[in-house]
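Example (one chain per record):
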Amino acid sequence: MKELDVRGLSCPEPVLILQDALKENKEETYKVLASEAHVVKNITHYANSQGKKVSVKEVDLDYEITVE
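Predicted structure:
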């Protein structure tokens, strides 16, 4: 599982980072660390549009998004 830390970044940058990672290896599972709810929503929407399964877990004040 590869980790992508997009905490503190504004959209569309977090989605573009995930997009690049999926282009590099679409079969990999990614753990995306985010700090904003709207980033979680945008990443979830994008990942679902790519046929990926997404789960979200709140960890303290941040979010942990698993994309597989």
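Caption: The chain has a mean pLDDT of 97.
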